[in-house]
Each structure stands twice: as structure tokens, then as C-alpha cells.
Amino acid sequence: MADGTPGAEADREAARRFYRRLAFLTPRTLRDRWLLDMEEVLAYRLSKARGRRGRAWVWVAGTWDLLRCALEERLKPASPIGATGVNDPGDGRRSVMGWSSEARQALTSLKSSPVFVLTAVGTLTLGIGAAVATFSLVYAVLLAPLPYDDADRIVAVWPERNFNAAMVRETDLRVDGIRDASGVSFWTLMMREGEVATELTAAVVSPHHFGLLGTRPALGRDFVSDDGLPGRGGVIILSHDLWIRSFGGDPDVIGRTITISGADHERRTVIGVMPEGHRPVMRAPEAWIPIEADPALSIAADDTWWVTERFARLAPGVSLEQAQAQLRAAAQSIKDEAPTMFSQEDVDRATLRPLGGYIAGDLTAPLYTAFGAVALVLLITCANVSNLTLARGEARVRALAVRAALGAARRRIVVLLLFESLFIGVAAATLGTLLSFALLRGLIALAPDTLARLTEARIDTPVLLFALGLALVASLLSGLVPALRGSTVRATAALGGGRAESGRRTGRVTQALVAAQVALAVVVTTGSGLMLRSLTTLLSEDPGLQAEGLLTLRVNPGEDRYPTAEELTLFYESLVDEIGALPGVTGASAIHIVPGRADNWSFPTYPEGHRYAEDENVITTNFRAVLPDYFEVAGIGLLQGRTFSRLDRRDTERVVLVNRAFAERWWPGESPLGRTVRVFSTEAEPYRVVGVVDDVRQFGYDRAPSPELYYLQAQWDWQIGQTLVVRFADGDPMRHAALVQTAVHGVDSQVAISQVESMESVLGTSAATTRFLAFVLTAFGALALALGAVGVFGVTSYAVGRRVPEYGVRIALGASRESVVRVALARAASPIVPGLAVGIGLALAAAGLLEAALYGVDPVDPATLGFVTVLFVAVSALAALVPALRAGGVDPIRVLNRG
Amino acid sequence: MTPADPTRFLPLHALEFRILLVLRRGKSWGSRIVEEIEEREGGRMTLYPANLYRRVRDLVKRGLIEETDAPEGSDPRRTYLALTPLGREVTSLEAQRLRSLVHEVDALDLITDG
């Protein structure tokens, strides 16, 4: 919470945020009149605090200050003007306060058992803190409304298929149920300001993109439809971030022409700056440029097949289902007109998906799984607190019985006990919410960064309301059983006779609660076991290359500096020569899209010997351009033939390498060497296959390899940036990153460098979702296990305590101490065994929920279940052993004397 | 309304009395009040906003202190507080009450006895 910024105004702002967040705690009479003054005093406190720890203490003490006042204000009898509140005479006025006397008694009673309060609040704090942090993620990604006009009417159109600009236009025209269909794609552009070259990610969008979302630039103007005509669109809209970073926030940037290459125009005029905090639909680009397309082109004639996402708005009064049926019909008519462009499968997949679910994508299941796990953990903590309260209630049986004997209504006793739980719940929710700030920071750091919305998770009003709700639910859950039990205490118990009978019944309830805890903990722990196995299986998959010791960095010299393909090839050759000669480097080469990145180039492919039928959909294949020696440097195995060398030049025969999957797909059982491949069309120049290389998992560990074509950069006309791959003989390649960057700028000082990362880290990103879920579930699993152990320990201690006389008699009658320990242990096992059995049953029933998140592990995995069972037996035995040993150590003489 | 009987406000809560004592020396505002009280308590007391302002609110409500004009050029977000004539009277009465209490304690010689 502390922002650490010096200066009175920063402190003042921090104080203001604090009271805004905790507004629900602040008594109304203070909030309405004295809030500014309270902020001033808190800012003063902050200014006096020393260091981070001092400030942290101010936040804790400030929260406690509010909480205490809120409680005391609510419990205080309505004091007439003149009474001072503290020295209130305490006459009959209190009766109008309803339950306030119970609440006060509950506070007094809690004050007298600090150990109980600490344990109960501490346990619940852990559960609530974890639940609040997880909920804030779920809320940010899945539940929070998107910041667009009528966001629930915006849909993703026909996902999982690339469009061209003509198809976006046609879809909009032919489907009456949607309007403003807008395409989005992400390109890398090169911006040059003086001597400085930077690469930036731009979203290429339909001109009415911002109109669809209901947003517009904060400065300057939006795109207009003319900007989308070919040759007209030399315009660009900057993100707030880029505007500040590269143009110093200068408002005069509007109308300026900047040098920016990589898409149609060399120079573009800045027409707008988006507002700070504008949330882009998918990834966050640094700038937006319009899609330029000739409105007269047919779908078949338009070659802009790179429009990766489409969004549109449902027309008024049209349901998603109606619009979807219209889309399906339109897709069919588009296929009929251009049969080679689409397969029937494509048409069948023509769907509309609500924007929110589409954006959350792959994270929906992991987040709900994590949330489910944390809910179980919270139930376990509630059961634990229930048990603690029961054990304490047992000790208080006489006091309660006296109250009952004096005529206290059953309702009043229930209320008293519920108030105790409520205070514990509220205290735990407050501390848990504070804890959740730290937990959330950790969760965000661990979470896959594929989604901008995740990092927006924060503890805000909805999350605080959730925490408040949790406090009430946790109080009820953990307090209800003890409260109902406590209220059945009879006056006869006060005479002493009821204790044994009441204890027996409490014992049964306690045992049932422990069994429930064990069962829930088994479910969570099984989940974490499965995710850990899944993660290790995933990471042990062979990526197809030797990632260790490999550094990757993207370089882009820009189009204008090396205008011919020969010059560009010479530039790259001198670049890898220079880097290859650096100390510690054992090889250097380049590929235009490094494995593990989400980008892809994929082209229609015409392999020799295959003729497509008239209406057959042309297969596209992943395409990569590489420099000679790429396969040797990356450690990708050569299976047949040869790889590229510098003898392959622009003026020698055009050659291509294919991977194993490509060879098996097109020429099964035959040698691909000497065959030819064309891309784009049957008229294109043929490339001869000279070698077959091993498969590489281009899109991460969890995706099977797909067919690939490798072309040589020197024989490929498109001028493109490359990703250098540099192999080092020793250790972490990132240590040498600066050296390599200096070498690149030694060859050409204006080359833009980006995405400097080790190959291991690039590939690791693709396992991020699994890693995130594995970590979260493991943490929750460990917590569940620990809480389960505490439960077993508690119930065994309690049982041993109650049976001290019995054990004393047994020992006096000649039983060995070992046999007494055995008896105590066997009794401890009685809730554990059914708990384990039920837990395993639940884990099996819930296995299906995890299935989608698992990789290479069966959701019903005997090894994991076996391990979890052994773990629980061992941990429970340990937890029961300490009290059981105490049973063996009972002194029979003292017991008999007392009895 | 008949003038309030100052004795019915006694005894005062310790923090309220502290606030009144600060204001007895002149008008003041939140953090300045906190600073003075803490200084006089010699570090035995740390005041937080809610606790302070609910006392301030009650004192205002009971007519012992009131909001007053801020000096030229001061931070407009600050509320300046001052004693009312009634507050002045109550402060004196409380002081007398405490003094007689101290006399009583002295007579018993409790402090030297430990």
C-alpha cells in the first residue's frame, strides 16, 4: 500500500486512497464531516514513519484504529449529549441496544483467551487472504465489466481463422445481426527518430475500430473511413505510453510526420493520441494504423490474409444465437464463391463469441480451478476454527450452563457465541485483506503474462465487498456448529453430571469436522500433485533443439538502409561473423521467428506430387526464413541430406529444408530429397528439398510439432528482421547479452534491438500457465495439508485430554505405556480413515475438472493418489503422535488420587 | 435552551481533556494537536485519526469546542478548532477535579510506597 514516494502531497494522496479503500469501516459521522482532517493526520503519521517498516506499521495501526472505532461506535450505547461515553453510568438505557450486551460479553470473553483468538484469527487470516487474492484475479479477468460501451454486445467473429480485409467487409455486409465488424492484427514496425531506431508493436485495425469500442483519442482525431483506402492511410495514432516515452508528452505531436517503416508507408502523420488507461482489446500495442484495402477487391483477389482477430457489435434486438445462424449462412455463401479458400470445417467453426470470454481464453479454466481450490482451503480453515471453538466451548461448559440455569434464553447463548465468531471473522478478514495485497503481488508476478488484464487485478471495492462477505460466511460456517452445540448445554451440566455426556457428543462433532478437513485437504493436495506431475512431464518434453546456452535477440535494420536483398544478406553475414568471433561464442546464426514465440507465418503450400481438387482447401504450412548454420547453432538434428551453407546464394538453385512432420505428411515412406515445393500458388518458383531436419515444438512444450518449411534468407525476397541465436560455451547466456548488443551496434549503430532473452526463457513462457496453476495449487495444497495436520493434532490432544483418567486406570491395571500409545493412535485414526476415503472419492469425482489443464498425466493417476494417501497417513500419524505419547506418559497415581 | 451545566460533563475522557488543553493555548488543527499531545506525553502515546476525530466530533457535538476561521493562506483542507466559553469552563473544572484527586493521592503517600 505504501508508495514510498517522499513529499507531503504523496503522503496525503496515500492517506486519501487508504480511507477510500476502507470507507466501509469508517463510521459515517466521521466519513461525512472529518475525512479530510483524518487524511491530514494520517499523512502526518506517514511523514513521521521511518523506512518501509515504519510506514507498513502506520497502515496496520491505521486499520486497527478504524476497526476499533467502528466496533466501539457500534457497541456504544446511544449516549445523550453530555455523557462522555467512557464513564457512562450504565443505567437502563442499554436495554434499547438489543444484542449489544451479548456483543460486549463476546468481546470480554475473547479478551480472556488470547491464545485461542490468535490461533483462530491466524488460521482464518491465511484462508481469507488466499481467497481474497485469488478472487481479485478472477474478478479482474473474468467478472469485471470491460471498459467499452455496452461491452456485453461486442463479440469476437469467427475466431481461429485468418481473414483478409475483403472478408471483414463481406462479413459486415452479409450478416445483418452484426455491425461495425472491425479487423485487428499486430505488426512490428520500425520507428526512426534521428539516429535512434526503435521497434514497436502496432495494431493494424479497421478505421472504425475505436468507434466499435466506444472510445476515441484523447488528443487529435480518430481514423475516418478514407484512412482505410489504399495509399491514403499514411496516418498513425499513438498510445499514451509511446507519446510520453518517445515524444515527451508534447501535444504538438499531432500533425507531425514521423519515419516509420514496415507497413505500406515510409512516413506517417500522427493524427491522435489515445487516453492514458485506454484498454486495448487483446495485446497492448504502442500505436494503431488503419488497414488499407481496396473496397472493390473480391475475397479471392485480396491477399491481405493476415487479419487475425475480428470484433463486431450485435445489432439492437438481435440475440447471439440469431446473429450466429446468419454468420453460418454467410460463411457458407463465401465458401461457395471461393471454394479453395475454405474447408467445410472452417464454415462449421464460424461462430460468434462474447468478448469477455474470448479475451479470458485459456485462463478461464485455470482461474476457476485455482478459485475452487482456495474455496476448499477456506472451508478447511472454517472447520479448523469450528473445532477450536468446540474445544474451548467444552472448557466453558460450566459458565454456559450457569447462564442457562439463570434463565438465559437459548437464543441469547447462540447470539453470544455467534458474536464471538463474527469478531474473529471480521478481524481475520481485515488482516486477510492486508495479507492479500502481498499475495496478489506474488500471484501477478507468477501469472502468465499473455494477458494484460491479469496485471490489472487489484484489491478494489468489489474485492473488499467479497472479503466482507467472506468474513460473514466464515464466521457463520465456523461459528454455527459450536453455537448450536453450546446452546444445548443444560442446567444440569452445572452440577457436574453433564460433562461426560456433553463431551462425548462434542467429540463426535469434532471427529466429523476433522474427517471433513482431511477429505477436503486430500482433494486439494491431489490437485496440486497432478499439476506438479503435469509440469514436470511438460518440461521434460524434448523441444527439438538445445535451448541451454542459447541467447536470442531480435534485430531489425529497417527497410531503407539495405534496399536490395543482396545488401541485406551481406549485412546479416557480417553480423553473424562478428558475433561468432566474440569470446565464449561457439556459433551464431538467425531465424525470423524463434521457436516458442506466439507469432507465426503460414503460407498456402503446393508440394510436388499433390494436386488439390477443384473445391479442396489449400493447406498452409508454417514458414521460417533462416541464415546458414541455424540448425547447427540451435542444435536441431539433421535427419537426411544437408543443411544450408553460404554456397547457397541468390543466384544458385532455390533450395528448401523440411521437417520430419512435413516429410511424413506429404511423402510418407518416400525420400523427400530432390522433390520440390511451391508456396502461395502453383505458378510460384519451385524450391528443391535438400534436407530433412528434426521437429521443433514451435508453439511451446504442450503443442505437437506441425509441418514446417525453412527457406534461406538469401533466397527470400521479403526484407525482414531476424532473431539472432547465439550459442555460448558456458553458463547463463544472458550474462553475455550486453557484449552481443555492442557487437551488433558495432556493425550498424542504427539497428533496432529488442526481445533479448535466453532460449530457455522463451520456451519457458509457453509453460507459464501450467507453471502458474502448479504453483498456486501446490501452495494451497501445502496449506490444506498443514491445516489438516493441525486439525488432527487438535482433536487427538482433545481426546487424550478427556481420557486421561481412563489411560491412568489402564496403566495402573498393568497395561504397558506402548499399548496405551497404540490405543490413543488408533483412536486418532478413526476420523482420518473415513476422511481419506471420502477425499479420494471426491478427488476422483473432481478429476475431470482438471483434465483440460493437465499435460501427459491421467486425471485419475494412481501414483499421485498413492502418494497423497501415504503423505496424509504419515502427516496425520506425526500430528497424532505427540498427544498420543502424552497418553502413554499419564501418571496413574495422580489420576487415581484425583479420581 | 438553558445554559448547560458544566459539571455534568465531568469526568472527562483523558484524550478529550488533552485536546481541550491543547486548544486552551490557542486554536489549532489535526496534526498540530497530535504533535502537541504526543510531545507532552513524551512518546507514551501515538494518536491515530479515527480515535482522535471521534473525540473531536463528540466535543463539537457537546459544544465544548467549535470550528473557527482559518488564518490567511493556510491549507484550506484543514479545519481549525477552538474552545467555546463552555469548553473553557469545563476544562478548568476538570483541572480542579484532577488537582483535588492529586491532593488525595499525595495525602496517602502512595507514590513513595511504590
Please explain how this structure is put together.
The complex is a heterodimer of chains A (899) and B (114). Chain A is α+β, with helices and mostly antiparallel strands. Chain A is built from 26 helices and 21 strands. By secondary structure, chain B is mostly helical. Chain B has one domain: Arc Repressor Mutant, subunit A. In chain B, helix 1 crosses helix 4. Classes of the chains: A alpha+beta (899), B mainly alpha (114). The interface between A and B is medium-sized, with 31 and 31 residues.
Please name the two chains that share the biggest interface, counting residues whose Cβ lies under 8 Å from a Cβ on the partner chain.
Answer: A-B, 31 and 31 residues
What sequence of helices (H) and strands (E) makes up the elements of chain B?
Answer: HHHEEHH
Net shape of chain B: globular
Q: Flag low-confidence runs of chain A.
A: 1-5, 78-97, 493-499
